Amino acid sequence: MLSRQVELSELQPRLLDWIRGKMPQARGLAISNLERSGAGISNETFLFSLSWQEAGRPNSEAMVLRCAPRSSPVYPDYDLSLQFRVMKALHAAKLPVARVHWLEPDQKVLGTSFYVMGRIEGVVPPEFPPYHSFGVYFDAAPQKRSRMWWSAIEAMSRVHQADWQKLGLSFLGVPGGGTGPLDRQLDYYERYLGWAKDSPDERQPVLEATMKWLRENRYPPARVTLCWGDARMPNTMFSADGDVVALFDWEMAFLGDPQADLAFFLLLDWVDSEGYGIPRLEGAPGREETVRRYQELIGWKVDQLHYNEVFAVFRAGIIMMKVLKNFKKLGVAMDQADAESNNPCTQRLAALLGLPAPGAPSRQTVRVDEVTAVVQFHLTGEGGGDWYAVCEKGAATRHEGVADNPNCTLTASAADWAAIQRGELDRFNAWTGGKLKIDGDMTLMLQLEEAISKLTSQP
Known about the structure:
This protein is α+β, with helices and mostly antiparallel strands. The chain has helices spanning 8-22, 80-92, 136-139, 142-161, 180-196, 205-216, 259-271, 287-298, 305-330, 344-353, 414-422, 427-432, 442-447, 449-453; strands spanning 27-36, 44-54, 57-67, 100-104, 114-118, 225-227, 236-238, 244-247, 254-256, 372-380, 385-392, 395-400, 408-413, 437-440. It is built from 14 helices and 14 strands. The strands form four sheets. Strands 1-2-3-5-4 form a five-stranded antiparallel sheet, with helices on both faces. A hairpin with a 5-residue loop joins strand 7 and strand 8. The radius of gyration is 23 Å and the shape is globular.
């Protein structure tokens, strides 16, 4: 991943020189507060502030740098220009998308292609830990969770109602009639599945059987719209009141049946809750209620939800497979050896289509306010040591030493753990970067983040 290869001290002067070429009238250009964002697994994101003077007046703007992956890509194709053009068109149409400034396809500038966009202020439900166990959605009252959910569904429906032809989005590839919109997507994901495998001989029985089912049961969509392609809560930014202010990650945008987005949104919410054995939060609207509201907003009938649910799980399953393979190659510790073929997505597909289960059942739902769990901490370096947290019914207490048979063990340097607690080091970046290792029930550890973070004493 790019975060392992680019130092901020090297990145900043190169980025500043490039921006000077884009703003020839500006004087005293300076970059400050450059930092990595914890968002995204398919690209690298940096946040920074830009200040300058123009016509004798001081100016400043908070900005975002999005870079294509230099190594360990998640997708077989990564076209930053596609994302840039989609976002530019949607911003002009006053949809909740950040304003993009400049695109740079030449990899010589920063070692990879990139674009710069304006930063929007708001909060984003996390992906790691899942938002049903930590963060702004978890912390919200049930009424606010409901507001966030409905605001996201409304924003998605606005994308589907946009006139993609007038917006000049035909470059996404206008599908043919009949089953053409599905055929284009199925062709892509069949190629994606082959690309994601380590060799042509590798077998993925559930995904391969699902591909066959999707081919045999395809249908002619009633309409073609712009589809977000990656519709989910962690790609949505909210205001303090719970209203959507921005939709992120347009690398998978396509022209097709909008029901694909609705199904993907519902599916990813299931993955980030019950799929990982995490209880779904109170106040989060259910499937049937969401479908009814979406139909009211869009003015169309949802008539192919089952097919699109299968397609959504299939898409997510291939992405999950590739991400887990990348993690394994990077040496990231995982708590399940067969996760690439046996995970929430393949288990769900087997249940939906009556296929043989890919392995042992997924983790059962655990409510941390009903169990007692022990998390062992092994912190190295200066200020380190061994201590453990006993979490009973959602409340954690700290104890020195080594516990017998802990549910999970966290290993990190004392300095890195302290930085994580202060919010200076992102958990996901620490985990994928090898600075944080979790052995045992990793999901339980993520569920207990909130309780552990409230411990008053720190090493």
